[in-house]
């Protein structure tokens, strides 16, 4: 399943991120805020379990989350989405996966992976601002699956149709959430119109 979150605030903030005139501080802040807005929708179907709590007026039967949420940002750009989601889900745990793309072959290579225990019991959100060819996301999803993850969602700001189709074909069990589905990839494998290089724009590097 693919879901494109059509929300006025997300669209407005994404427009600011697309602009070449937006500096590092504002780019990073908008990314953080969009991630938080997306998290509200992405977690709408989280399962609950019954629990009884003691209130000022006595015991009360209510509900709480029955799974831990684990955020897995793809280094390095995915880190820019973590804080916005943690603001909404402060109890979430955070793993990390490092995958870099060979500029000539466009193929992904793993260089780092570290996760909390019991991924098989968690709701795992793989985070990356850009879903371009889908190679990095595919590699990251394979890595968390090998660690036992069963329930996985891929959360990206901007996706290209080519990357979306690739992930749907490779991982039909993974739900994809986007803030925008863009036009295409260019000859260099970058999203059009996209955001530029999200990692460089987040951290002010080139």
Provide an overview of this structure.
The two termini are about 35 Å apart. The protein is built from 6 helices and 13 strands. Helix 2 (about 25-40) packs across helix 3 (about 80-90). It has helices at about 10-20, 25-40, 80-90, 135-145, 160-170, 200-205; strands spanning about 1-5, 50-55, 60-65, 70-75, 95, 95-100, 110-115, 125, 130, 150-160, 175-180, 185, 190. With about 210 residues, it is an alpha/beta fold. About 30% of the residues lie in helices and about 35% in strands. Strands 1, 4, 5, 6, 7, 8, 9, 10 and 11 form a 9-stranded mixed beta sheet that branches.
Q: How widely separated are the two ends?
A: 34 Å
What share of the residues does DSSP label as strand, in percent? 25-35%
Which residues sit in consecutive blocks of at least 5 with pLDDT less than 50? none
Order of helices and strands: EHHEEEHEEEEEHEHEEEH
| Strand count | 13
Shape, principal axes of CA atoms: globular
pLDDT averaged over residues:
92
- Helix/sheet category: alpha/beta
Q: Give helix % range.
A: 25-40%
Rounded Rg: 18 Å
């Amino acid at each position: 399943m693919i879901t494109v979150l059509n929300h006025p605030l997300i669209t407005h903030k994404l427009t600011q991120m697309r602009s070449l005139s937006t500096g590092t501080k504002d780019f990073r802040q908008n990314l953080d805020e969009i991630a938080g807005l997306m998290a509200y929708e992405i977690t709408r179907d989280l399962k609950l379990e019954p629990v009884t709590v003691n209130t000022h007026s006595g015991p009360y039967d209510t509900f709480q989350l029955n799974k831990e949420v684990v955020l897995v940002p793809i280094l390095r750009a995915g880190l820019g989405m973590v804080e916005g989601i943690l603001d909404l889900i402060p109890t979430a745990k955070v793993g990390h996966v490092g995958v870099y793309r060979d500029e000539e072959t466009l193929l992904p290579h793993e260089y780092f992976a570290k996760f909390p225990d019991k991924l098989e019991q968690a709701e795992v959100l793989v985070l990356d601002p850009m879903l371009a060819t889908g190679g990095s996301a595919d590699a990251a999803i394979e890595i968390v699956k090998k660690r036992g993850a069963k329930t996985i969602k891929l959360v990206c700001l901007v996706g290209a149709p080519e990357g979306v189709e690739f992930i749907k074909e490779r991982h039909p069990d993974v739900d994809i959430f986007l803030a925008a589905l863009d036009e295409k990839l260019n000859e260099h494998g970058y999203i059009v119109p996209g955001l530029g290089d999200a990692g460089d724009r987040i951290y002010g590097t080139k």
